[in-house]
Task: structure prediction
Amino acid sequence: MISTNNIIDTHNHSTASGHAYSSLEEMAKDAASRGIPGFVLSDHSPGMPGSAHSYHFSNLRVLPRKIHGTFVFRGIEANIINSQGEIDIDEELCNELEVVIASLHIPTFPPDGKEAHTSAYIGAMKNPYVKIIGHPDDTRFPYDISRFVQAAGETGTIIEVNNSSLRPDTFRVGAEEVYKTLLKECRKQGVRVTLSSDSHFSASVGCVEHAARQIEEANFPEELIVNLSIERFLEEFGLEI
Result:
């Protein structure tokens, strides 16, 4: 059984995302109280309805590295906006952030067919600033898993196993079955993954129990999971503390 006690949660939202319910300070306090060593603040990029202005992200440099005893890393969840894989933030902003996640969301990319989704994901992976593909698990966005994983391996992109997608009350569709196939292919091709909560409330930061169960059921090798310790996380993302 894998241990997630020292996980650095790579996907979390604060009130700045517009549809999350905790401030950054509340998230840090809650995470620290539960012994979570660190997390990535990855609010939705400006293209998501209700989210923050680009100034919010460029000003993340004012944050201390540690808040209430837990490490906080500066990130964003960008929207993939077309089948070429373009995202809704520019290179200048990407360069100011430590972790860029790219995801498909219905408000910014209505489902458009398997080939369009596959092309969009692969195009996003070719962006050198995109470190993670977020929640590639919703059957409303079908895609070619083999080509997707091959492209991730070629570009060094990390694939997210999203805990929120696997919750019983999730709004996403079919994630458990997608991950069975996706993780098998990642294991076969030696492609790395990250476990994330996709939290929208402070009590969920660091909670990856459903993602961890999916990993265990897939007999997925721990050495391909990039965020089970702060040391591995820092190495994978080229960061220092």
About this structure: The chain has one domain: 8-237. The CA atoms of residues 24 and 228 lie 22 Å apart. The mean pLDDT is 97. The beta strands are 8-9, 38-41, 66-67, 70-79, 99-103, 132-133, 158-162, 193-196.
